[in-house]
Amino acid sequence: MATMTYLQAISSALRDELRADERVLIMGEDVGEFGGAFKVTDGFVAEFGSERVMDTPLAESAIIGCAVGAAVVGLRPVCEMQFADFISCGFDQLVNVAGKMHYRQGLAVPLVVRLPSGGGFSGGPFHSQNPEALFMHSPGIKVVAPSTAEDAKGLLHAAIRDPNPVCFMEHKHLYRRVKGDVPEGVFETPFTARVARPGSDLVVICYGAMVDVALEATADLDGASVEVLDLRSLVPLDEEAILDSVSRCSKVVVVDEANMTCAAGAQVAALIAEKGFEDLDGPVVRVASPDVPIPFSPPLEAAVLPGVERVKEACRELLAY
Amino acid sequence: MATMTYLQAISSALRDELRADERVLIMGEDVGEFGGAFKVTDGFVAEFGSERVMDTPLAESAIIGCAVGAAVVGLRPVCEMQFADFISCGFDQLVNVAGKMHYRQGLAVPLVVRLPSGGGFSGGPFHSQNPEALFMHSPGIKVVAPSTAEDAKGLLHAAIRDPNPVCFMEHKHLYRRVKGDVPEGVFETPFTARVARPGSDLVVICYGAMVDVALEATADLDGASVEVLDLRSLVPLDEEAILDSVSRCSKVVVVDEANMTCAAGAQVAALIAEKGFEDLDGPVVRVASPDVPIPFSPPLEAAVLPGVERVKEACRELLAY
Amino acid sequence: MATDIAAPASVEVGEHEHLQLADRIWLHRAMLLMRGIEERAMSLYRQGKVPGSFYDGFGQEAVSAGAAFAMAAEDRLCILHRDLAAHVIRGVPPARIFAQYMGRAAGVTAGRDGNVHFGDRHLGCVGMVSMLPDMMLVATGMAMAFRLRGEPRCALTWFGDGSTSRGDFHEAMNWAGVQKLPVVFVLENNQYAYSTPLDKQFAVDPVERAAAYGFAGVTVDGNDVEAMFDATREARSRAVSGGGPTLIEAVTMRMHGHAAHDDMKYVPKEQVAEWKLRDPVDRQEKRLRALGVDVDELRAGVTAEIDAAAAEALSGPMPSVEGVLEGVFCEGEAEPLGDGHAPWSGFGSGGAA
Amino acid sequence: MATDIAAPASVEVGEHEHLQLADRIWLHRAMLLMRGIEERAMSLYRQGKVPGSFYDGFGQEAVSAGAAFAMAAEDRLCILHRDLAAHVIRGVPPARIFAQYMGRAAGVTAGRDGNVHFGDRHLGCVGMVSMLPDMMLVATGMAMAFRLRGEPRCALTWFGDGSTSRGDFHEAMNWAGVQKLPVVFVLENNQYAYSTPLDKQFAVDPVERAAAYGFAGVTVDGNDVEAMFDATREARSRAVSGGGPTLIEAVTMRMHGHAAHDDMKYVPKEQVAEWKLRDPVDRQEKRLRALGVDVDELRAGVTAEIDAAAAEALSGPMPSVEGVLEGVFCEGEAEPLGDGHAPWSGFGSGGAA
Ligand SMILES: Cc1ncc(C[n+]2csc(CCOP(=O)(O)OP(=O)(O)O)c2C)c(N)n1
Ligand SMILES: Cc1ncc(C[n+]2csc(CCOP(=O)(O)OP(=O)(O)O)c2C)c(N)n1
Ligand SMILES: [Mg+2]
Ligand SMILES: [Mg+2]
Prior knowledge:
The complex is a heterotetramer, with 2 copies of chain A and 2 copies of chain C. The termini of chain A are far apart. Helices cover 36% and strands 21% of the residues of chain A. Chain A has helices at residues 6-20, 44-48, 60-72, 91-105, 132-136, 149-161, 210-218, 239-249, 264-275, 298-304, 308-319; strands spanning 2-5, 24-28, 53-55, 76-80, 111-117, 142-144, 165-171, 179-182, 194-197, 202-206, 226-230, 233-235, 252-259, 284-289. In chain A, the strands form 3 sheets. A 7-stranded mixed beta sheet of chain A has the order 3-2-4-5-7-6-12, sandwiched between helices. Chain A has a 5-stranded mixed beta sheet with strand order 9-11-10-13-14, sandwiched between helices. A two-stranded antiparallel sheet of chain A has the order 1-8. Chain A contains 11 helices and 14 strands. The mean pLDDT of chain A is 98. In chain A, helix 3 packs parallel to helix 4 (91-105), helix 7 packs across helix 11 and helix 8 (239-249) crosses helix 9 (264-275). Chain A is an alpha/beta fold. By secondary structure, chain C is an alpha/beta fold. Chain C contains 11 helices and 9 strands. Chain C has helices at residues 21-46, 61-69, 84-90, 94-101, 135-148, 167-178, 209-212, 225-240, 269-276, 280-290, 295-315, and strands at 4-5, 76-79, 125-127, 155-160, 183-189, 192-193, 196-197, 216-221, 246-251. In chain C, helix 1 crosses helix 3 and helix 4 crosses helix 11 (295-315). The two termini of chain C are 36 Å apart. Residues 1-11 of chain C have low confidence and may be disordered. Classes of the chains: A alpha/beta, C alpha/beta. The C-D interface holds C 2, 165-171, 174-175, 177-178, 180, 199-204, 206, 208-209, 211-215 and D 165-171, 174-175, 177-178, 180, 199-204, 206, 208-209, 211-215. The complex binds thiamine diphosphate (2 copies) and magnesium ion (2 copies).
């Protein structure tokens, strides 16, 4: 066990994989000498060389497309988007080339795309996005979103060893704020949900940065026993764990940071409304960012992003239902 | 009143707008002399000239980006994607440049993107997509999806006159199969839902090509009174109409053709689970394409796309609930 | 640099420096198979046996045949929609091609993808996606992997004149140029992008761009299969010896409509007539006759092979719907692309043939 | 064509063919304002008064000042993140710029977008998005509209050396070339894309590409504001007279880190030292002194203006959260961009100034 930040855990997983498997390769803008915009690959070039920790041209479509090419001839590329928002520029290669490859022709594309995502620090409309729902809607792409240092490492190990394209949603706001014990060495975290706190009166279903928000918001709700389910993986989605929580708690609040419409939370709520209906003792309440670009100015951003207060309020109301 | 096909209705709306407003401009691949891959703009060059019905280079990002530029200096561009699937190549310009412009700086982007979408004719994984959920999840873009000839014309008129980016989902499978009476001249269809058939035992909520499927599937369900709600507009989503149908019918089947996860249907189901919960007499059942690329071979495609039988079965089960 | 015209094809009669007679016959056979298979597939399409739409490469056979013939078994290809001869050369049996067109179980994609959207991963080919020219980046990435591993291998892809307008063309050309990768880009200039003529697609011939990306650009007579072979062989040896990428512009003509439904009214009759005189199959046939080859026998053999293949494919089943939801993800180990056939005598054994 | 070097700036003392003394002072003032505002904003950032991150254009002031000064009121601009002088010239008051950086209600985007991501639509400017170089296509589209309406107007946008690697660069260059549009592309070559040096971004200087797209490409000393003006004025007159686009490569140096947090360890000390000698502000200052201008008074005036503007902005409120969900869509009539200021004497009145 070592105590690491969420960011250190990501670096550690990358370093371990580069050491363990010569097929692993890191590609991205400024990931080399500079160590990446968030310093996740700081010092990597010294140990692994600039060919395995490759500074690419400023070209997201090329980063994804070239990674697909490298993957189908036997490498294990890990691509870094400087910010998750920029995947919009490589979207076609990701969903049409990488995502549909195996179904169409049985050709595996072992590829990881790291997406520093989310808001909370005045990043504004283009440095705060949470694009995971776009990938969830595109068949053939796995999507994981850790909320703890341990899961950041374990999910990244599993993602790199997965024979499929995996979008690794790493929340920028957790990079240095989240610390935790992380087992030594390589370990793989399964793409399943995790009960962050067991409870029986209500369950908050969330992932990524919203897990801490949910834990804090429900730490003391007039003594109510509130479960917090950390999805960890969005594709595959752990339907069994979700429905199990629902059956035990009967009341559900679904929280995600992305814009509300057609978000991951919409899928979770729809799933529950169809397969968990009989267990429900109240409406499936959602908390998410309203459908606006994430504004830059602190008061505006705070008014848009789901925070502790909004989650508290949603839970209180539903508990009183 | 004139009887037109769905495709003729689209052509008619475009022609009327080109005649009525010199700011209107059509841009796309092969839309000029050739009249477009589906002949929607057949004969337009002769009447309006090749500058207002512009053959563009094969470059979707440029088509959207240049249309944005033209729109902010006073034109009203209508872009044609040769197939909806190719919007993946112009996705960034659409969601980040066009979609966020007005919120960020109060600059309106009156722009229509026509997206020939959907499957049913062995188009395979890249000519059968229904990408509307991607736009619904991106703030600042309106999305409409007509199911009748009349709505195809009226919604397109309204879209072209709207001061915002509008994605016009035209279903290829309806182009020549759907015929109907269409009022003469220019008329605008509001971006609201339409009760395609009133009913009281169950409501099927759908849009686009699924409306005919729903009507046929529920035409005679052992005498059950089944309402069919045609959403017509996905952004804005007519929550009032949806919740009204739910309150009257108490049982809901949500049908869309897109891949299930995070689809428009997920949003509708989630909305009902939250705001229509008390009216529900059963689970919110969904019918959609499973999360696979749309296969090419007829038997495989038929097994994946939602059809009359699957909708019938879903309704029967729910009615019996 | 950008406009060196590749050496003209060796004179009609007489030896070829790199092609033995058997090779020259192979090239012709590949073109005959492509033309024959596509003509048969077109009539199957007209009979309603080929779902969706149908694209062919009539008149462009030399481009894929000549280029693919220069590729080694361990090289990797992204084959496009006018390049059937490349599949034939890599070793895809005609019966599987017919089955592919017809969406049958025995097709290369077992009915999951359509018509020309296929590639046999066991033969070193990645099936194209519709979005053009996305495969340029996949080819560039394969070449990047070869370079990183220090392997003397090469990646090659084809793409059309129209697709050069898209951003991915640029991102691939730039990346390949910056990293000096062993990749060959074959620009198939067939004068049209669907209905759109070249002058609406670019102001300057794209081969001119190669120099601006720092690598070689050559223009080749795309209707001369041996010239295509020569240019590609040179590009490949440059690539595997560290000389970087090459852009080969194969000048040719799309003699049929964009797809089966297209009557190509927009193409001047004279243009078609003029190009008819440069038919690549006739041209190679003349060459072989002059070399004393019994071309009629060759044709007869190819026709028989196609008859048998079509019959076999027609007798095969459509895919079963069980399992239609499976395979979205790879469950086992990721298995990289395998080697393809490489019949050129220059590769000795003929590679994995 | 691709490498004609623009005429060197007119000799230090002496007349300028197109710039009156007042213009030359205006150019200097714009650069002083840019530098002064950015330095002040940087210290406000250090004090925690500017949220998010902070980017500046220290050492590149001549690029935006010189180019924007050549643009008419009815022209349209997409201004990038190292181009503050262009906002100043178009008429954005310094106080609104400070308010923008600080996310205050009085900022150009009223706190909705951050730092340099702004453009005043009433002054003919479209605010940039982060995705680079997306605005090249928006500028191309504006030029397309001017051409369609037969208006003698021009669109201009800036973009960096790194962003030339992206597909949108190509799609814009190609489209503008094919349609011969009245657009000016100013490539701001400041030697780095974040930490990435030029040689990892392209193999050949992108200005070489202009010829391959069929239009003019010129290289300019980006640290000479009058040379930037000259090259842009020529490009603009070529554009409005139907001569098509121009790619201007402004050679300069990013003298600060990519953003406030970046210590630019990756930049050799000598490189910075060498470029320090070519500081664009010093250069124009010398020129003006030689022309007898009291530069110190000018500086003092600018400093006072900045002090007042910063104070005004600091005293302004943060945006109120009511209405934070409004304005995603335009409810009324779509209002196109308005005209900006055009202080150059060559435009007579100074346009809408
Ligand atoms: C990104 C993208 N946009 C649009 C299309 C639709 N489309 C299919 S083929 C074609 C023309 C392609 O022309 P070219 O690249 O010259 O290839 P050719 O068919 O002439 O061989 C178009 C526009 C596509 N396949 N991909
Ligand atoms: C499409 C895209 N990818 C990544 C980024 C992140 N990013 C911001 S600035 C920058 C470097 C830009 O370099 P250059 O184009 O030379 O402009 P400069 O900052 O040097 O003026 C990068 C990679 C971005 N803004 N857009
Ligand atoms: Mg072509
Ligand atoms: Mg730069």
